[in-house]
Amino acid sequence: MEPSGSPSGLADLKLLSVTTYPHLPKVGGSALSTHDMCLSFLQKGVRPTVLARADKRLTRTLKRGEKKDVLDQTLGYDVVRAADPVNAIESVVEALAPTIAVVQSGQQIECATRLIALGVPTIVYVRDVEFDRLSGPFFEHPLLGYVANSAFSAQAVRRAFRINCEVIPPLVRRASYATESERTHVVFVNPVWQKGVATVIALARCLPHRKFLIVECWPIPRWERLKLWFAVRALPNVTWHPPTTDMRDVYRRARLVLVPSRWREAWCRVVTEAHVSGIPVVATNIGGLPESVGSGGILIDPEAGTAEWADAVELLWNDSRAYACYVAAARAFSERPEIDESHLAEMLLAKFIAHQVAAAAAG
User: Fold this and answer.
1) Tens of pLDDT along 261-274?
2) What domains can you pick out in the chain, each with its CATH number?
3) HSE value, Cβ hemisphere, 13 Å, CA-based, for 109
């Protein structure tokens, strides 16, 4: 099909952001990055629309009635929440007539295939390297382009599919995370196996004199939640925090943030969020974490035991000179121009416009 329009600038841009995961207020890195992107685009004069999966309660309501989706405008931009986002693409494209689409997460390839079949120039934003969950392999097409959130994920795409991606890190709006920290807790976000919750529980047992704050994020299976509940119940130095869309209360208590991931993180926006307030990070030396941590923290070998993690925590607690250096480095690393929110918004918009022009020329 012909590309849907050939816009030449921001005034002509009609952006559709697509995910097969739920959008805010459900919490997750991809949803938060999409939200921050949309808010930054609004400041640039571009009004985006997000197509996302409805949460379980809304999905049940939609399936009982005649409607297949609902329009939500409470976030400041339009969010179409659908029981089946893939099958909602056609009706949303018909109603919105987008000039560009960006597929953020979930069944990215299936969504991209539907969009380009409708003539919509489409960008796949690569946010992780779990390629078996994509609903198909990456492929080349005149209407299809790719952006990666880190050099690590771009390299993984190049190795797996021989496709090049422009690297644009996740957009983090500083005002949503900046706070003056009391620096009283070791903070860990997203207590699931992949993110290293077992390491955190072991550390809390090893360091009973330190306060730990564990912040829930992704949905946790019932049996896993029960196991975690029993583990945390036995540790008086651990506090459990429910999911939140305002992380300032969390970072207000953080002396450091733990990211003991067991999988190949493509970036991990929690690192950037913590750095905004000068909070150092202790993270696994894996995937894209060296890129996001930079000089603002300590990297631990993936095969290291609890003792090495404990040594890093204690260094940041007991050595005031070393801690001050890491605080300054974390804050400075968060202020580097290449992750400035306005700069990243402009990079994304320039990429979208260039892709539209190229798609129109190829059409």
Assistant:
1) 999 999 999 999 99
2) 10-167 (3.40.50.2000), 174-336 (3.40.50.2000)
3) 12
> Could you tell me the pLDDT band of residue 66, with boundaries at 50, 70 and 90?
low
d(CA 211, CA 307): 17
The alpha carbon dihedral of 220, 225, 227, 229 has a sign of positive
**Residue 6: predicted pLDDT:** 40
**Burial, 320: exposed, middle or buried (Cβ in 10 Å; 0-12, 13-18, 19+)?**
exposed
Alpha helices (H) in the chain, listed in sequence order:
29-43, 56-64, 85-96, 108-117, 151-161, 197-206, 222-233, 248-251, 269-276, 289-293, 306-318, 320-334, 341-362
Structure tokens at 43: 């400041």
Is the confidence at residue 56, as pLDDT, over 80? no
Q: Are the C-beta atoms of 21 and 52 separated by less than 8 Å?
A: yes
Gap between the Cα atoms of 44 and 245, Å rounded: 23
What's the mean pLDDT in 290-307?
Answer: 97
